[in-house]
Structure prediction request, 318 residues.
Amino acid sequence: MKLVKMSDLFTVSYGNKLDLNKMSKSKNGVAFVNRTGFNNGVVSFVKEIEGIAPYPAKTLTIALGGSVLSTFLQINPYYTGQNVAVAIPKIPMSEAALLYYATAVKANRFRFSTCGREANRTFRSLLVPRLKDIPAWVDGSDHTMFDGANAPFTAASKTSDAPKKYGLFTLSQLFEIKKGRRLTKANMTVGVTPFIGAIDSSNGVTARIGQSPIHKGNTISVSYNGSVAEAFFQPYDYWASDDVNVLYPRFEMTAQMALYLCAVIRQEKYRYNYGRKWHLDRMRESVIRLPVCGRLNEPDWQYMDNYIKTLPYSSQIS
Prediction:
């Protein structure tokens, strides 16, 4: 694979250098792209400025400072803030190819990750594959498969049935709590069973192992060592490490209820800093605050379920 400079494939220039604070915001306006690594670089929408045409869609924006080399394909016209470059293809490219080049540019981020080094002087000479060297699978992939993934399950308002009161419950009232089991890397075999460790990402999954699951799905894993109080809903049967406790619900729990409870459980994290572990006995007696309903002040499971269904991406919860 031969590499060429970005400037061989794109007309690369500094963007508008506009100041968002001096612009008028508008929900239905023009996208404003800044030096962030989130939301496709878009931080707001603004009214179109007379005499300044937005940059065209199907071009790339590149953050030269802040989240350096965060690169995004813009599918709508846009303005940019300070230290944002714009790359306009010199020859027609598919959206899939543009997304490939966005990823190729991001792959150079490690060069600018220390001492606040910005990419202002060198971004035009970054090396990327030639257009004809892009793998065939790129244009064969369906880059629209996640369109609409951020939609909520329901259009109902989050506040339409907000709870009027809350109650306190111990975790042992709500769950039967069981321990995980130690399994060393040396004894792991390769397979498909999720192995849940005491980490704060990837839903707690640190490996896929060949051993049979020891815990049932539709439960919540909570780390009591390592990344303490990281709670994840586990939809499938799995193996939990000995740094993890497993919460088996004493009620009919939907995925939405579980995600609500995970968020509440994570709020207990601050109690277990500085080496204080959330071991089994402490966890059983730990108290969480939940919305309640009825004369018996029981947990309002229906509200929790409904609330999660109003959040972005909740349409993807199965």
In short: The chain has a mean pLDDT of 91. DSSP finds seven helices and 19 strands in the chain.
